[in-house]
Every structure is written in structure tokens, then in C-alpha cells.
Amino acid sequence: MSIKLPQKLMLLGSGELGKEFAIAAQRLGNYVVAVDRYANAPAMQVADAYEVISMLSADDLEAVVTKHQPDIIIPEIEAIRTEKLLEFEQRGITVIPTAAATNYTMNRDRIRELAHQELGIRTAKYGYATTLEELIAVSDEIGFGNVVKPVMSSSGKGQSVVQDKSEVEKAWNYAIANSRGDSQKVIVEEFINFEIEITLLTIKQWNAPTIFCSPIGHRQERGDYQESWQPALISEDKILKAQEIAIKVTDALGGAGIFGVEFFITKDEVIFSELSPRPHDTGMVTLISQNLNEFELHLRAILDLPIPHIEQLGASASAVILASQKSDSIAFSGVADALSEKDVDIKLFGKPSAHPYRRMGVALAKGINVQEAREKATKAASKIQII
Ligand SMILES: Nc1ncnc2c1ncn2[C@@H]1O[C@H](COP(=O)(O)OP(=O)(O)OP(=O)(O)O)[C@@H](O)[C@H]1O
Ligand SMILES: NCC(=O)N[C@@H]1O[C@H](COP(=O)([O-])[O-])[C@@H](O)[C@H]1O
Ligand SMILES: [Mg+2]
């Protein structure tokens, strides 16, 4: 297969990850339509056209696809009416990585069943609940501490760590209140006491073997990523084990594009957690750490362009810049100060409004080792204030 350029690409979801993808796509002259639930979303600012719709509405999706006639649809978030994507695919539009893959990963339960039940991959012990009573019962089976998450959510929304029985009701209410769409189902997972958690960026190509980036280590708070670094210092045999699992899952999902495959690494085990069939937030470190970043890799894989070599450029890190309060008028201070240090870069996403913990930007750094890179990135991020 050889894909002619330019292509008309429709991004479903237009946040910071979509913005960097749109920039990569534009650099090869493609036409980008950015879609999201609110106006002036980051990717819309760099796209040829944009649409504001509910991506959970089949009618809204139909209207924008009819209007723009994209060659390729590229989901950027999980919460999309994925049944509609199956229909578009049947009508001959390419959906990345495949419509079935977006359907599997829209909810945590489907991808978990695929990995654990069908492919026999080691995951945390887990169960589901659709009422508080069920959650109480299933929590007892799984044991404490455990982690309760809505089956449809991302970036830690609605997620809590439950230490004992007295906290179950609070976790239920929090999960249901923060679930995306109309889902009332939660997953309970055994708490894994990992040494490190990693994202293995896995690039599945149309006509070439699957390739990998060097593993990315990360640290999360409230279920949301705070800093990431590359390379993650884990043993070669654990990397090979993670690659083997990533190949299994991504082969089952099919198609082409980058996947962020998440693992918990314990002293003896490599435990599959979940995956994004698209660039991963922790993979923003590749904006500084590689010759081709995760967005360029996604684009090349989608457009069947060669990836002759992925070069890791040395110890690098990213640290998030979070909002601390609600605001509709965003301005930043401290940018000059943060950029005064060598090998430090800042990306500000241009989100039009803020609320507590919303990710507004990211600081990137290179260092003589991972520890120094992390310190530089964290220090740079801390200098940026939202005023
Ligand atoms: N079973 C578990 N044991 C220990 N920690 C966990 C467990 N499940 C989740 N976590 C912690 O919470 C983080 C977020 O969980 P998870 O990746 O499932 O949520 P998410 O909302 O899909 O996040 P994202 O969309 O940003 O990838 C994990 O990266 C990990 O740090
Ligand atoms: N872990 C998934 C993730 O990082 N997704 C990224 O965050 C955006 C939503 O941000 P918002 O909630 O601030 O609008 C999404 O559009 C995507 O770029
Ligand atoms: Mg995750």
C-alpha cells in the first residue's frame, strides 16, 4: 500500500496530544480537521478546519464526517461513540488504528477482557461492579488496598485507592460522578506495589514489523501523570518481556499507529495495565528525547511512511504544568526564567480555560543522567505560574 499525500485527516479530540500530532501532519502538508467538545481546543489552533461537537453523539459524528469527507479518522481520546467509527470504517474511511481497537479501548473492561481472558496476559486481579452493593462484595473478594476506577474515564478521573471497607462508598460515589458518558460501571483492581511503572511506545506499521521506543518511566498522582523520563532504567529481560506482551495485544487490535502500552514493573514481574491506541501523555518526553517524537511516529505509521531509525538522544524528562484554580482568562509568568536554563524547553498548550489540576503545559529537559533531567524538568515546570 502506498498512500498519496496530502491526506485529509480528522482528529477526534483536539487536546495537547492532538496539537502536536496536527503540527507533525501539517509539516508534511496534510489537511487537518480538528474536532472536540469545546471551541479553541489546542489542536484547533493549528488545524485547517475545526468542528465543535459531542463525540459521544452518533449524529454529530455523522454530520462532521459528511461535511469534511476525511480520508483518515484519528481518535485522540477514548470517549467517542465507537460504534459509529465501525460504520465509517465499513464505508471505506480508515480509522486509526482500527475501529475495533477504539471500541476495545473505549472502556477499561473490554481491553482488560481481551488481554487477560483471551490472550492470557498477567494483569492485576480485578472485578467489576454496577451498584454500591456489588462494589462492597467485589472489594472483599479482591481485598484491600485496591483501586476503583470508572470503566470509562482517563487521566485518573474518578479513580481512588481504597484502603479499607469504610472507604468503599466514597470511592463508588466519586467514580460514578466522574465517569464519562452514561456508564455506571466500575472496575476494582488489586493495588500493585510496583517498583516503577513504564509506558512502552509501540509502533505498529501497515507493511513493516512492529518497532519500539526505549521505555519511558513515569510518576503519577491522583491517577494522572506528573513526570516522565526516558530511558527507564529496567533490565533487558523485563524490556523484552514487555515488548512480547505489547506485540500480543497490539497484534490482536490490528491496524497501524503508535500505542502507549502501560506496565507495572515489580521485582519479579511485568504486569500489563492498559494501553492507549494513540500517542500517550507520558510520551510527551519524546518531544525532546528522540529524533522522531511519538507524534511524528504515529503520523509515519498511519501514512505508511518509513521509520528507518528511532534514536534516543540521551537522559530526558518531562514535568507537567498544572492549573491550581478555575479561570477563563489564562496568562503565564515565569516562562523566561524557566527557559534560561540550557537544554530546557516549555510547551504551553493554549487551553482557553483552567480548573484545578488541568494540564496546561509541559516542561522538557535533557540532563547528564535521568535524575538530573527530572530535576531540571520539575524545576522548570515549578517556575511557570498561571496568573
Ligand atoms: N492496580 C493498580 N495498582 C497500583 N497503581 C495503580 C493501579 N491502577 C492504576 N494505578 C495508578 O494510577 C495511574 C492511572 O491509572 P490508569 O492508567 O488505569 O488510569 P487512566 O485514567 O487510564 O490514566 P491515563 O488515561 O492517563 O493513562 C497508573 O498509572 C498508576 O500509577
Ligand atoms: N491521559 C489522556 C490524555 O492525556 N489526553 C490528552 O488530554 C486532553 C484532554 O485534556 P483536558 O481534560 O484538559 O481537556 C486530550 O485531548 C488529550 O490530548
Ligand atoms: Mg493509564
Would you mind describing this structure in some detail?
There is one protein chain. This protein has 387 residues and is an alpha+beta fold. Helix content is 32%, strand content 26%. The protein has 12 helices and 20 strands. It has helices at residues 16-27, 58-68, 82-90, 99-106, 108-118, 132-142, 168-177, 236-253, 286-289, 294-302, 335-339, 370-383; strands at residues 8-12, 31-36, 49-52, 72-75, 94-95, 126-129, 146-150, 160-162, 186-190, 196-204, 211-212, 216-221, 224-230, 257-265, 270-276, 316-322, 332-333, 344-348, 359-366, 385-386. The strands form 4 sheets. Strands 10, 11, 12, 13, 14, 15, 16, 18 and 19 form a 9-stranded antiparallel sheet that branches. Helix 3 (82-90) runs antiparallel to helix 4. The longest helix is centred in the middle third of the chain and has 18 residues, at 236-253. It is globular. It starts with 7 loop residues before the first strand and ends with a strand. The relative contact order is 0.12. The model has no long low-confidence stretch (mean pLDDT 97). Bound molecules: adenosine-5'-triphosphate (ATP), glycinamide ribonucleotide and magnesium ion. Glycinamide ribonucleotide binds next to helix 1. Its EC number is 6.3.1.21. It catalyses: N(1)-(5-phospho-beta-D-ribosyl)glycinamide + formate + ATP = N(2)-formyl-N(1)-(5-phospho-beta-D-ribosyl)glycinamide + ADP + phosphate + H(+). ATP binds at residues 108, 149, 154-159, 189-192, 197. InterPro entries: ATP-grasp, ATP-grasp_carboxylate-amine, ATP_grasp_subdomain_1, PreATP-grasp_dom_sf, PurT, PurT/PurK_preATP-grasp, PurT_C, Rudment_hybrid_motif. Mg(2+) binds at residues 262, 274.
